[in-house]
C-alpha cells in the first residue's frame, strides 16, 4: 500500500510540475528585473540523490523558464553518487566552472574566498527568520527547508516488549539494555558510507551542549571554549557507548541503505536519523507503525535539533544576479512547487507563508510533538558565525567513525586532535 502511495505521490509531483501556470503564478516574479530581449543563461548545481533525481530538480527549472522565455537554466549535478555536492562545488570553483545558482550546505567553505553573493534584507522578505545562518551579519544562503533529527522506532516492537519512549538519558540506556536482552539489536547503524554515524554524535551534542549554550559554536570560533572540554568529552563517551554497545558488531561493513533496510525488516528496534528518512517510511514496505522521539539528554527529552543549513546560494561572479535572485525566490515561494518539494521528504517550511501539503501520519506526529520541544541547531551543521570552520566537518566524519568502531579509543585525545585541526583552519582563515 505504501509503495502505491509513493508511486501516486511521485506521479502527482511530476504531473503537477509539468502543468500550465495560472495568472497569479509566483514564477513570474522577477520579470521586471529581466530585459525581455536579453538572452540569459544560468547554471544550477543541484544535490542529486536517489530520492531527488535529476527529473525532480527539472520541475522548478522548467516552470521558471516557461514564465521567463528568454532564460535558460542548465542543471549541473555530481558526476557520481560517492561525491558530495559540497566537494563537487569545490571542484567546480577550482576549475573555473562555479555555477550561477547552487544548492549549498557549507557556505563557510566558499564565503572567505569571496565566491558567494551576499543577499540584502529586502531580497529575503519572504523568509520567516533571516537571522539564522548569518556570517558577520550577512546572509549568503536562502534556506528552503527545515529538517529535524531524532530516534525513529518500531512502535509494534515496543508494545510487544512493554517499552515506552524514554524521558531522559538513563531511561534511554535502560531501554537499549532491555531490547538487547530480548535478543534484538537495539539500534540500526552502518558506518561504511562514512556519514550516518555522525548524525548520532551530532544530535547528542545538540541536546547536551547546545540546549544549555546555543552560542557554543560562536564561542568555539572565538577561542573561548574547546572540543576537548569536559562537557564535550562526556558527550563523546555517551556516543561511544551507544554505538559500540547497542548496534550490530558488523557496523563497519553496513551501508546507509542496509541500515535502513535492517530496521524496516524488523532486525532492529530503532535508528537515529534526520527527518528526511520519512521518505523511507513511504518507500519501503513494512507492516508496523513507526514512531519518533527526540534524543534524550541527562534531564529530559524536550530538545529537538533542527537543520537549517541547506538552501540556495548565488555566485558572486554571476553575470545575471537579479535573474538568479528571481529564480531563488521562485524556488522557495511558489506554492505549487514548494508543496511538491517539501512533500518529497516530509519537510518543514521556512517561509512566512505556510505551505500546505499532504502529510504522512509520521510527519503529523513529529509536527505535533515539536510544539513542546525547544529547538536548537544541529551541531554538525551549525550555520553562520557558529558554523564549523572549513575542513572540520571532514575531520568530524572520520573521528566519529573511529569512536564508533575502536573499543580502545581515547575520546579525549580525539577531541584534542580536533582542537588542533581547528587551530589549522583558523590560521588558514586569518592568513
From TrEMBL:
What the entry lists under SUPFAM superfamilies is as follows:
Periplasmic binding protein-like II (SSF53850)
One Pfam annotation reads SBP_bac_1
Keywords from the named record: Transport
Which ranges form a coiled coil? Answer: none
Q: Does the keyword DNA-binding apply?
A: no
Which family, according to the similarity comment?
Belongs to the bacterial solute-binding protein 1 family.
Query: What is the name of this protein?
Result: ABC transporter substrate-binding protein
Q: Which organism is it from?
A: Paenibacillus chungangensis
Amino acid at each position: 500500500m505504501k509503495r502505491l502511495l509513493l508511486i501516486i505521490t511521485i506521479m502527482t509531483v511530476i504531473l503537477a510540475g509539468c502543468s500550465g501556470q495560472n495568472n497569479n503564478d509566483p514564477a513570474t516574479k522577477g520579470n521586471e528585473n529581466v530585459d525581455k530581449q536579453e538572452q540569459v543563461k544560468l547554471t544550477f548545481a543541484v544535490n542529486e540523490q536517489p530520492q531527488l533525481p535529476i527529473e525532480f530538480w527539472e520541475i522548478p527549472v522548467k516552470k521558471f523558464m516557461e514564465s521567463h522565455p528568454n532564460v535558460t537554466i542548465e542543471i549541473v549535478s555530481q558526476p557520481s553518487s560517492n561525491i558530495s555536492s559540497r566537494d563537487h562545488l569545490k571542484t567546480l570553483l577550482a576549475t573555473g566552472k562555479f555555477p550561477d545558482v547552487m544548492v549549498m550546505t557549507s557556505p563557510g567553505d566558499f564565503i572567505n574566498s569571496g565566491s558567494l553573493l551576499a543577499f540584502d534584507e529586502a531580497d529575503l522578505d519572504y523568509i520567516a527568520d533571516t537571522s539564522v545562518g548569518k556570517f558577520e551579519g550577512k546572509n549568503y544562503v536562502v534556506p528552503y527547508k527545515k529538517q529535524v533529527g531524532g530516534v525513529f522506532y518500531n512502535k509494534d516492537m515496543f508494545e510487544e516488549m512493554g517499552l515506552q519512549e524514554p524521558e531522559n538519558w538513563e531511561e534511554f540506556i535502560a531501554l537499549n539494555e532491555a531490547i538487547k536482552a530480548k535478543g534484538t539489536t537495539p539500534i540500526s547503524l552502518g558506518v561504511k558510507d562514512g556519514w550516518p554515524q555522525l548524525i548520532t554524535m551530532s544530535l547528542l551534542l545538540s541536546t547536551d551542549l547546545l540546549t544549555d549554550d546555543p552560542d557554543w559554536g560562536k564561542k568555539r570560533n572565538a577561542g573561548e571554549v574547546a572540543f576537548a572540554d569536559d562537557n564535550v568529552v562526556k558527550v563523546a563517551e555517551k556516543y561511544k557507548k551507544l554505538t559500540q554497545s547497542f548496534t550490530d558488531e558488523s557496523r563497519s561493513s553496513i551501508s546507509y541503505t542496509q541500515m535502513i533496510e535492517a530496521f524496516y525488516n524488523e532486525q532492529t528496534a530503532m535508528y537515529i536519523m534526520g527527518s528526511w528518512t520519512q521518505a523511507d517510511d513511504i518507500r519501503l514496505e513494512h507492516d508496523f507503525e513507526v514512531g519518533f522521539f527526540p534524543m534524550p539528554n541527562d534531564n529530559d527529552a524536550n530538545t529537538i535539533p533542527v537543520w537549517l543549513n541547506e538552501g540556495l546560494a548565488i555566485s558572486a561572479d554571476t553575470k545575471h544576479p537579479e535573474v538568479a535572485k528571481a529564480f531563488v525566490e521562485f524556488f522557495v515561494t511558489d506554492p505549487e512547487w514548494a508543496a511538491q518539494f517539501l512533500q518529497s521528504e516530509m519537510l518543514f517550511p521556512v517561509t512566512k507563508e505556510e505551505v500546505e501539503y499532504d502529510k504522512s501520519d509520521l510527519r503529523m506526529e513529529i509536527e505535533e510533538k515539536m510544539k513542546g520541544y525547544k529547538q536548537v541547531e544541529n551541531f554538525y551543521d551549525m550555520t553562520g558565525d557558529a558554523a564549523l570552520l572549513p575542513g572540520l566537518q571532514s575531520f568530524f566524519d572520520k573521528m566519529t567513525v573511529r569512536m564508533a568502531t575502536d573499543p580502545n579509543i581515547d575520546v579525549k585525545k580525539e577531541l584534542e586532535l580536533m582542537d588542533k585541526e581547528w587551530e589549522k583552519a583558523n590560521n588558514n582563515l586569518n592568513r
